[in-house]
Specification:
3 helices; elongated; 113 residues; Ribosomal Protein L22, Chain A; 40% strand
Length: 113
């Protein structure tokens, strides 16, 4: 059975989150949590939180054993962009784009796969 969790409006760009997401795709959930715990990327904290939520959903809502789960799908989509301006020389301004992403994690049990 597939169980999913979504973290929306995460204040990290989809490109940076995508680097973290690619590391844990297809791994058993305990191994993925361990990897994310020690990965030296800021986005790993947000991905780990979303993965933990998907595991909790599977355990509490569908009575699945967390030891049998693996990350079947995980991806980061583009969210809204906050636009800011920074003052530059001669009265000009440069645009700063503060990007957001939506992280989706789907875990599945080995029997369902």
């Amino acid at each position: 059975m597939k169980v999913r969790a979504v973290s929306k409006f995460v204040r990290s760009s989809p490109q940076k989150v995508g680097l973290v997401v690619d590391v844990v795709r297809g791994k058993p959930v305990q191994e993925a949590l361990d990897i994310l715990q020690f990965l030296p990327k800021h986005a790993a904290r947000d991905v780990r939180s979303c993965l933990a939520s998907a595991i909790a959903n599977a355990e509490n809502n569908y009575q699945l054993d967390p030891a049998d789960l693996f990350v079947s799908e995980i991806f980061a989509n583009k969210g809204p962009t906050i636009k800011r301006y920074m003052a530059r020389a001669k009265g000009r301004g440069d645009r700063i784009l503060k990007r957001m992403s939506h992280i989706t994690v789907v875990v599945e049990d080995r029997e369902g796969a």
